[in-house]
Structures are given as structure tokens and as C-alpha cells.
Amino acid sequence: MKIANIELGEKPLFLAPMEDVTDPSFRFMCKEFGADMVYTEFISSDGLIRDAAKSRAKLNISDQERPVGIQIYGHLIEPMVEAARVAETAHPDLIDINFGCPVKKIAGRGAGSGMMKDVPLMVEMTRRIVDAVHTPVTVKTRLGWDEEHKNIEEIALRLQDVGIAALTIHGRTRAQMYRGEADWTLIGAVKNNPQIHIPIIGNGDIDSPEKARQAFDRFGVDGVMIGRATYGRPWIFREVRHYLQTGEILPQPSVSERVSIAKRHLLKSVEVKGEKVGVLEMRRHLSCYFKGLPDFKSTRLKLVTLYDVSELLATLNYVAERWGDFDTSGITPPPLSHDL
């Protein structure tokens, strides 16, 4: 599969952009476990053009994580065009437009999946961005605004016509948020439309190697994007790739291996963001690596309250010693509530 001139190999696996999750350290970990392409957290167009420090910091990408996409969102054409130009200065492999985020504070303003209520504006915004930058432009969106307006097939054709290089479809409407099951039949319908010639990437409820293979085999998508299932489980890309190639299910990582992964993740976070911020932003990840361990409450409390890196590393060593023989086959990380 190729997006523009980006070669991604056969049946590529994508890390979904997720706010407060897919920062450089987490992207690094997912890349280490075989993600073929990763994305930044989504970035506000207003923040970029105002030169807001938090938004600018999200442009921080490295060659280690390539190919990498920068995702932007907004509800006005001119700020989005300018934001795309700013994002291009960070030299991403592609620029992705977020037309899929369903949360009220974004969709309610007409950005994210709120753009699905005004398809002509969505198409014109996309056309202007494609024309404004030299970097390939892609889009991530949903099936439609609600059950009565599942117009993704029309949207896909119109976005293709204005020059996007690939389309990612989350198999829910905006009204569904994250409730119910993702509907992959419409994703498959878009992919199998003979008028569609750009890559179609499917997203929604991929939390096992078996579901990933079904997405490829049953619905014919070019790529699969994984979101919530990566949280506390960046090795899911290794699991899926191994299953696609061999048909075998890998055993879940031992507690000792999880400790090693958590250490690498922590140290990468500190390297990228400094000790204070790096530790604070790792808290949401650290306890999730060990979800399901018995009698873990007091140790989890340490992982989410300690500030000192050496103390955190010592606590992680204790986890390996105390729970090293625990059978991890039944551990399932908690889902995120905001897979974008």
C-alpha cells in the first residue's frame, strides 16, 4: 500500500491520533512494536496560528517515528489553511484533517465530526488545504452525523475529487460517539466502490489480531487503524503483525516484559519533555501497563503519585519482583473514552 509516495508495505497498521495519548514517547513505543504509521495528537488550527506553546509543541516529530502524520482540526477555512502551512514546516510525511472527533467541545463548534453537517464546507476546506501545501493531505472522518445521515460514500468521492491521498473511516456516526459496535459494512462499501482509487483505512473496535485480519479479509480495506486498544498495550501491533503473517496468537507479555516496556516509555517521555512534565504525562500510561494484577492498589498509587524518576524505576523493579510469576494471559487494558 502507498499513500502518495509513502510506501507502507502490505496490510499496514496505523496508530490512531489520540489527544493526550499519542505524544512522541508513545508514538516511539508503538513504532518499536511495529506500527507502520503513527500520528500526532490532533492540533487546533487556532492554536497553531496564534503560536500557542502547547499546540506548537505537538509539532515535535523525529525521524525515528517516520512515516508520521500531523493531524489538525478547526471549523474555519482560512485558519485551517494557515495551520496546514505551519504544520508543513515541521516536515511531516503527511497532513491529516480531523473530520472525526465527536466530543462536544469540538464537534459542537463545527470542527471534527461537526463538519459532517456541512459537506460542502468540508469539501471546500479540504480542497483549499490540498492546494496550499506540497505535503500529501489525508482525512479521517466517520460514517456520517447520525443514523439518518450516513453519507460517507458521497463524502469519500467528493474528498477524493479534491485531491486527498487517503481516507480513514471510523465505523460510527458522530451521534454514536463510542457507543455500540463499529459498522464496518459501510467502510467496506466505500473501499469496494469502483470509483474509489485512493487507499481506504478502516478504524473502530480493532482490539485483537483476529478483528484486524477480518477487517482486511472481509472488508478489503487497505490499512487498519488501531486506537483505544493500544492504550497500555503498544505491543498490539506486534501481535497483529505476527497473526497476519503466521495465523498464530502470541502470548501476552510477562510482567517482567511489561516492566521493561514501561521503563523505556518513561525514560523516553523524560527525554522528550523533561523530568517534571515527562513523569506527569506518563502517569496515565504506567498503571495501565499492569491493569489486572491482584493486590496492586497501593503500588498503582505510587506509580501515579511519585515525581522522582529513580523512585519510579525502583517501584517498577518491585513490580517485576513481586508479580514476576503472575499469569498475564487474562490481563486486558482498559479502553479509552476518546479514541479519535
Give the topology, please.
Layout: E1 2-3, E2 6-7, E3 13-15, H1 24-32, E4 38-39, E5 43-44, H2 45-49, H3 53-57, E6 68-73, H4 77-88, E7 94-99, H5 104-107, H6 119-132, E8 137-142, H7 152-161, E9 167-170, H8 184-191, E10 200-203, H9 209-219, E11 223-226, H10 236-246, H11 255-273, H12 275-286, H13 297-303, H14 309-323
Parallel strand pairs: 3-11, 4-6, 5-6, 6-7, 7-8, 8-9, 9-10, 10-11
Antiparallel strand pairs: 1-2
Notes on the structure:
With 340 residues, the chain is an alpha/beta fold. 42% of the residues lie in helices and 12% in strands. It has helices at residues 24-32, 45-49, 53-57, 77-88, 104-107, 119-132, 152-161, 184-191, 209-219, 236-246, 255-273, 275-286, 297-303, 309-323; strands at residues 2-3, 6-7, 13-15, 38-39, 43-44, 68-73, 94-99, 137-142, 167-170, 200-203, 223-226. Strands 3, 4, 5, 6, 7, 8, 9, 10 and 11 form a nine-stranded parallel beta sheet that branches. It has a two-stranded antiparallel ribbon with strand order 1-2. It is globular.
Features:
340 residues; TIM Barrel; Non-ribosomal Peptide Synthetase Peptidyl Carrier Protein, Chain A; 9-stranded parallel beta sheet; two-stranded antiparallel sheet; 11 strands; 42% helix; disordered C terminus
Structure summary:
It is built from 14 helices and eleven strands.
Biggest pleated sheet: 9 strands, parallel
Q: How would you state the average pLDDT, rounded? A: 93
CATH superfamily of the largest domain: Aldolase class I
Helix content: 40-55%
Radius of gyration: 20 Å
Number of structural units classed as domains: 2
Tell me the strand percentage band. Answer: 5-15%
Instruction: Just give the CATH class of the largest domain.
Output: Alpha Beta
Note the run of SSEs as H and E. EEEHEEHHEHEHHEHEHEHEHHHHH
Distance between the termini: 23 Å
- How many E strands? 11
- Described by the principal axes of the CA atoms, the overall outline is globular
Low-confidence stretches: 336-340
CATH architecture assignment of the largest domain: Alpha-Beta Barrel
Instruction: Tell me the quaternary state.
Output: single chain
Within the CATH hierarchy, at the fold level, what is the topology of the largest domain? TIM Barrel
